[in-house]
Amino acid sequence: MREAQDLLKCERCAVYLLDLECCEASHLERIVERPGKVIERQGPLNRMQSDTVSPEDMRESGLRTPCTFTTIFELRAPGTQTLVSRPSQFDLKTSTLAQIAGYAAATGQILNIGDVAAWLNEQHSEGVAQLINKTNGTPFTDCDVSLFEAFAIFCGLGIHNTQMYENACKLMAKQKVALECLSYHATASNDVTVKLAKEDIPSAECYNLYSFSFIDFELNDGDTCKATIRMFLELNLVQEYHIPYEVLCRWVLSVKKNYRPVKYHNWRHALNVAQTMFAMFKTGKMERFMTELEILGLLVACLCHDLDHRGTNNAFQTKTDSPLAVLYSTSTMEHHHFDQCVMILNTDSNNIFQALSPEDYRKVMKIVESAILSTDLAMYFKRI
Ligand SMILES: [Zn+2]
């Protein structure tokens, strides 16, 4: 804007932002005063037929469609501060500058006024939507008007981009609020957590965890959580990675809570997958080919791999144009399962990885991510 002001060689330069709610700009009335300078009288207007507009037209138009500007950006002489103000409805009504801006906004006309004070019959002391007083005291020429048009386009683009950016920021804030709300409700309650943390965890044999013929039918919901905790204990993960016991309990309960009661891809399916992984580690002796971190990552991935499954597949998401499909065009649901897993881990009270070093944390998250994304069978069949 500063460059544009220099280019057009005018003393002041203001941009009015058209909009809905308004608010204060008493400084408007001071804009046009040029102490110590006498402007040569001339024909009121140069180009663009602005001479057909009289102050009366402008006032009438203002009454019909009152101007609604939210913000005014105003540049003055070099070295002085740029003013950004939010005018009130009263300011806009009483300011001639704002009225002219409003007229230009309503009619789309470019006004090139020789001497605003004269034009207004010296009733008011100011005018103009954007450019005020050429520095050399001469009136604006056709060339200035052309330049000004280019400037207006430039301003328009800039303002449009700014507004888009502001909207994007607002949407991001909105999303953040929604996420905060979601993670609050996604977390298991304290009472249930404390209760589970106090209870004894039956042995692995009791739940038949080492066997490939494990069956969850006889376990009640509380037992499914205890069986999960037992697997963490058997694999020595709680001790190795200093997982606070209460955090582990809350995390298991939260994961369980974030499974929907669908026919197949529910919490019990997750438990069965995790138990099969556990039996492969222990009974299948796969444990020795894995690092501790990989074991931790895989067990967490098994438990989280179908989080928030809606009982519909990726093709359904794509065909129904669901927001999830817009977000992820491939492996739609798998990305969502991983996102939910991260969302749960993101609250401190659920973060079972909190004692990990940043390096280990990064590694384990990578393992969880690639394991969950690999559960997209479409990707699996592509590889064979
Ligand atoms: Zn699954």
Keywords, please?
single chain; about 375 residues; mainly alpha; Catalytic domain of cyclic nucleotide phosphodiesterase 4b2b; 2 domains; four-stranded antiparallel sheet; about 55% helix; about 5% strand; elongated; binds zinc ion; hydrolase; metal-binding
Please explain how this structure is put together.
This protein is mostly helical. It has 2 domains: 2-151, no CATH class; 171-383, 3'5'-cyclic nucleotide phosphodiesterase, catalytic domain (Catalytic domain of cyclic nucleotide phosphodiesterase 4b2b, Orthogonal Bundle). Helices cover 53% and strands 6% of the residues. The protein has helices spanning 2-8, 55-64, 89-94, 96-107, 116-119, 142-186, 190-198, 204-207, 221-234, 237-240, 245-257, 267-282, 292-304, 314-319, 323-327, 332-345, 358-373, 377-383; strands at residues 10-18, 69-75, 83-85, 131-134. Helix 2 (55-64) crosses helix 4 (96-107), helix 7 (190-198) packs across helix 11 (245-257) and helix 13 (292-304) packs across helix 17 (358-373). The radius of gyration is 34 Å and the shape is elongated. Bound molecules: zinc ion.
